[in-house]
Amino acid sequence: MAALDVCGEWLISTCDKKLIAVHTKQSREPFVFDCSTAEAKPKCTESDKSDVGGSEETSSDRILAVAVSTSGKRVALTDDTKRLVLFQCEPSWQVISTRWVVRRGTSLVFTKDENEVWMADKSGDVYSFSVVEPQKTGDLKLGHLSMLLSMTLTPDSKYVITADRDEKIRVSHLKSPYNIQAFCLGHLEFVSSLLVPPGHPHWLLSGSGDGTVKLWEYESGRRVQTWDLKQLRDMPNSENEKKSAVSRIAGSPCGRHVAVQCERLPSVQLFAVDQEGEAHLVPSSRLTLSHCPLDLTFDPEGRLWVLLDSREMPFLMYTHTGGSWTPNSVSPELKRVTEALRPHWDALQISAGLESRFQHLYKVSFDNMASYRQKKQERLQQQNEHWDKKRGPGNVQQSNGASKKAKGDKPVAQASK
């Protein structure tokens, strides 16, 4: 998975099996962590195997999710080998711990006090892992009946919000997750992205495989707005457009801008927060790109960074000036980050070349009536053939002759009258 995030003055990108952190302000050596050379899992005993479901699974060491703490001092990642790796960023990068999880993770998030990191997994469960006790195993907090795809915590640390493959968004109490505050229902496909935007602690933005972005008041579950991104792009509802899932929603630190990225589309949709009356979002501009974006994020200065599927220009930086977003191609930070990433481009290309990570999540529809009619026709044909064989050719011919004779006698009888 190719991902982009900001950790203080470090810009973090993940490329297949590697996490690469580049300091944007100083010419410091980039930090590179390669999961393929990381600590290996100890050999399981027979009892351990039974706990995780039997035989050992093959894995690729590919990074599946990354999270950055609020202060920018901690980073966590989880990979396809079921590692959970915790890093310290300041004053220097180092691995704090490597733990092993039961199922592959899909989403990570730090609590506000940074004492815990929560992980959602593919089986629908959420575990919390201690940061203070970095070797402690995880505690099960809550579960869905479907695969979890995204998770976030509210700024007041009151709720944990989880989204799954079955279009559900659940708002649960953080201290007692078995208590459900609300559901946010309305998406027609899996929910792929969640964000409580900076500056708006009572809002929730959600993106889905149905190609829409929705704004909620999550505590009540009330839907405030819905934006169909296909209509904003003036695109027809073709089959390809239906498969353009929202892959990332990011908010600027000032709370005035939101950027939305759809998978495998060479554009970024930007929204602005309108404070008149009841605050809401309005489409502000759309950035047309030369290549498809792999991920995007805002830095502390409010600049928008976009990671592209392009060897020549892997990064773009946009600055909001004069009411519009303009590219900043001469930024020293952009140059520093681009040069640091180039040696690892092969790994980034592997991430970019992977199949859609959402393709297998779409609903599959079946025409049951067509299949039923075909089987019924075949069954009737078999019955007719069976009775024809049972009567035999002579009986069929005699029956046909008698029928013709009866039909021929009828007009004569009428004529005699």
Automatic annotation (TrEMBL):
Keyword tRNA processing set for record: yes
Mapped WD repeat ranges: 184-226
One GO cellular-component annotation of the UniProt record comes to: cytosol
Stated name of the protein: WD repeat-containing protein 4
User: What residue spans carry the Basic and acidic residues bias annotation?
Assistant: 375-391
State whether keyword Metal-binding applies: no
Gene that encodes it: WDR4
* Region called Disordered, residue ranges: 374-417
List localization entries. Nucleus
Tell me, in a sentence or two, what this protein's role is: Required for the formation of N(7)-methylguanine at position 46 (m7G46) in tRNA. In the complex, it is required to stabilize and induce conformational changes of the catalytic subunit.
Database matches in InterPro entries: Trm82 (IPR028884), WD40/YVTN_repeat-like_dom_sf (IPR015943), WD40_repeat_dom_sf (IPR036322), WD40_rpt (IPR001680)
* Similarity comment: family membership: Belongs to the WD repeat TRM82 family.
